[in-house]
Amino acid sequence: MADTTENETSGAAGRTAEEALRYRRLAAWRRSEKLLWTGPADRSLRSRLTELASGGDGIWDMDDHPDIYGGGTVAELERRTAELLGFPEAVYFPTGTMAQQVALRCWAGRTGNATVALHPMAHPEVHERGAFEALSGLRTVHPTRERRLPTAAEVADFEEPFGALMLELPLRDAGFVLPEWEELVAVVGAARERDAVVHFDGARLWECAPHFGRPLSEVASLADSVYVSFYKSLGALSGAALAGPAEVMAEARAWRHRYGGQLFQQYPAALSALLGLERELPRLPSYVAHAKRVAAALGEGLRESGVGWYRVNPGVPQTHQFQVWLPYEAEVLNEAGVGQAEETGVTLFRVWWGEGGPPGVSVTEVTVGAPGLGWDGCAVRAALADFLRRVPPTT
Fold it and tell me: Are the C-beta atoms of residues 330 and 353 closer than 8 Å to each other?
């Protein structure tokens, strides 16, 4: 393993305890020689910019002028996204939060109903500080509270009218879970029977195609509009897109400007997204397939470990991400994980947290990417055994 660099330690004296822990984790992950995926913060600024400059030559004329309020790489990214998703147009946004604000606001104006039906664990309800209501005057309702997307019957029988049904595919906080294809078709049909439009929160839609056994364009065609992220699975620097009918996208551009999303230049993020579409998108099915093997090996290892209660959720991952639950405090598991990375150069688990679960139980998210393809079942079980040896026994 490489030694800690001067940049990793500079400024350490002025950090809070929380900041110090974060930098300790980042340093350990960056120096790890064996990990399941490479996160956006695992690499240095230099390596990311070098990759962008060298990789860009294969997908864009690097002697071209940069974009100014759109055009150039941004326009090409919008064109490619619309083509992949099978929509007439797509609009680039700096964030997914803004993209979905605009999408649901546009649809509310067309339906005359500002109520959005979505899951209580969906991203806008949990991670956006009530932005739908605070910024756009939207009201949310929940057809189900189960840890899955609503069924067709729950949508059809819901007691209140709504103008839009928003489906997060996959539902991350429930464990990156997806319905079966027939269930998804039925849910969309139930919403349409109620004269509601359907919007997909597809921040991680790119990796859903293997589960559904359908191309991306066919999955996206079920919805009236779709949001996708470029950094979550494709490894871009940042950015998102909203795809839909031409007239809705024209209005979306106007609202993007009003919300402050018409940035002067965005070519680094746009170029990195084009690289992600070129390189990472074709690899995602292999990550999804291997995630099933990693989850199975973790389940076997946990059963053999005598750890007691545990959960791999879902038991068979539906994307390249899933959850692991263990009966320990998050602080204990986080120390075990970072200690393992520092001492052995192996990063199996990243961050654990206990909020939202039973007392004394913590959860982590496992992502399988290109580095994880080199892990077989034996390697997963060995890393798990070493991790568990670092967890003090409960009293």
Answer: yes
pLDDT above 90 for 118: yes
90 sits in which H/E element: strand 89-93
pLDDT of residue 32: 95
For residue 260, with 0-12 CB atoms within 10 Å meaning exposed, 13-18 middle and 19 or more buried, which class applies? exposed
Q: Are strands 225-229 and 240-244 parallel, antiparallel or unpaired?
A: antiparallel
Element (H, E) at 217: helix 216-220
With H, G, I as helix, E, B as strand and everything else as coil, classify residue 33. Answer: coil
Q: What's the CA gap between 143 and 214, in Å, rounded?
A: 26
CA geometry: angle 273, 321, 83, nearest 5 deg: 35
Q: Assess whether pLDDT exceeds 70 at residue 68.
A: yes
Tokens of 264: 């002067």
First-to-last alpha carbon distance for the chain, in angstroms, is 35
Helix (H) or strand (E) holding 168: strand 164-168
Q: Which residues contact 261 (CB under 8 A, 6 or more apart)?
A: 93, 94, 95, 98
- The mean predicted confidence, pLDDT, of the chain is 94
pLDDT cut 90: percent of the chain above it: 89
CA–centroid distance for 378 within its chain: 28
Name the percent of the chain in helix, strand, coil, to the closest 5. 50, 15, 40
Please report the sign of the dihedral spanned by the C-alpha atoms of residue 278, residue 281, residue 284, residue 286: negative
Alpha carbons within 13 A on the beta-carbon side of 346: 15
DSSP count for the chain of H helices, then E strands = 16, 13
